[in-house]
Amino acid sequence: MTPRLRAAARPAVAATIAGRLLRHAVPGPSDATGPGRNAVRYIVDWAGPVDADLPDERAVQAACGLMQVHGRATGGPLPLAVDYASVVAGVLAAQGATALRIARARGLDLREVRTSVAQGALLAVGQYLAAATARADSGAPEPDVLVAPSDAPQADGLATLETSDDARVEVETLDPLAWRGFWARLGVAPALAGRGWLPFQQRFATAVCPLPGELRQAARRRTLAELRAAAHHTGVSLLTVGSEPAPALRAAPWHLTPGPAPIPKARAHPDTAVPGPRPAVPVSGAVLPLTGLRVVESTRRVQGPLAGHVLRMLGAEVVRIEPPGGDPMRWLPPLAGDCSARFSALNADKPVVEADLTTAQGRDTVRALAAEADVFLHNWAPGKAARLGLDASDLLPGHPALVYAWASGFGDAFGDRPPLGTDYLAQVHSGLAAAVRPADQPPAPSLMTLTDVLGGLVCAQGVLAALAAREATGRGSRVDSSLVSAAALVPRPAHRPRWTALDRPLRTADGHLYLGPEARACPEAVIRLLDGAGPMTAEDLAARFARRPGEEWTARLAEAGLTATPVLTDLTALARDPAFRAAVAPPDPFTGHARPYAPWEFA
């Protein structure tokens, strides 16, 4: 039987991130662990409810699917070169601690919350897990490329383009006509440009972008100035990808602006059955910190819906505002029943009110819902809220108890004409696109939606901080967060790291294995496990692993006091693996796909 080797070190990055966010909260909930009457405590470990030996960040990335999703665009599983799962766990810990403070102010006897880096990783891959298990559970084949491109690994599956003067650029548009016009200015025929449109759009869902090679070649024949001109004339956003990670900015993760006045007496709105603002009194029968609170969201894609999803998992009722006929994202394949699995992963259990915001009646519907909500959340494009008359300055004077949250792409980083506020451009602008890859790989954003997920989590934490402030001051507030403010949380070195073959997943006879921290740091200890082997390079050592199955290598390493983690390359296995039984809910008749359980345990 393989010996079990439990991790001794706590996740330092997660603890640092949690502490920073809690200090930034206004007023900041205490992270005290003492016996005081109002003390709350958060605990973060590596594995949490996952029954596996996960001694560090890389082991979590290997076991929970991050390496698989991140590596799809470059041909096989690959670690993120930053402690991404630990940062997510740190935000989750801060959310749990802030929620505890809110719960105690509302009369709930909750004092402790636990989360883990593994639970953070599983939340981050939740959409990809939903898509994979919806296909597997239905028995349907992968949709034809005309519907959605494959998410199988591709050696050349990044969307980053190279120019003739050696620049690397990331482009973004949500408009197929702008896409076609951009490529037409580079001499590409419309039909050929059209072949690249679906892979380009679907990369948000599949984490891979198999563009036709002719498009990449067309870009390489032009200079950076020519690509910039084409983008300018067609309305396509374009940013150059830096070769080194920018130092982690100390930008505020969110900005909180207090509302105008204390909470008025609660009242019922005449046009809805929604009760008035919930006062800070004990909530009978509540079992989660936000039970009894209502969130109204008008959001799309990932960042905004994920923020609402987090608040719902903490107990709030979350009501979605969608256009007449529903959000078009509901029908993107693969489907789980009659709804997109990826959409369901972030929006299940949210009641929907349809409203056409281009009409006065639709805007009145939003005002009526917001007037009786605790939180109004949106991720509209810059300026849209003001044009609709639904900005914080429009809603807060009549409802000073409201927490008004805007989740943007770039905040005020580009003034009043920012690029499209999407994940990959945020990775580029923040330096994360360079930080996630080692020095021997060209810099490029991960096609896993890193900043969308982190941006949604930071938005939710800003909302929780504002709700905690409301309990203390009796005032609502405006909360502004962005993808780039979230990306700034991720620590990164001044220069990209140089990896050896042992820093990458090792191919075994039946899969991939990732060495633990001691084995990576001391290759000699691994060489001693090879009978009769003399000195060898890291590359030669890695090649020897292909001769035996992973289970045999894991047992040999464990006997020597070393760890190794099997690399998950099939997300559907998470729903079947007994080690994940307490962390991942399998597909059921209601959802039709697997999903991570809520990433906190309150006590």
Task: Characterize the structure shown.
- By secondary structure, this protein is an alpha/beta fold.
- Mean pLDDT is 88; it is low at 1-7, 27-37, 139-149, 266-277 and 279-286.
Keywords:
23 helices; 603 residues; three-stranded mixed β-sheet; disordered N terminus; seven-stranded mixed β-sheet; alpha/beta; 37% helix
Overall SS class: alpha/beta
Give the end-to-end Cα distance, rounded to a whole number of Å.
35 Å
Sum up the overall morphology in one term: globular
Strand percentage lies at: 5-15%
Helix content: 25-40%
- Counting DSSP E segments of at least 2 residues, the number of strands comes to 20
How are the strands of the largest sheet arranged? 6-14-13-12-7-8-11
Average pLDDT reading: 88
Spans of at least 5 consecutive residues whose pLDDT stays below 50 are 1-7, 27-37, 139-149, 266-277, 279-286
Q: How would a crystallographer describe the biggest sheet?
A: 7 strands, mixed
SS summary, helix count: 23
The radius of gyration is 24 Å
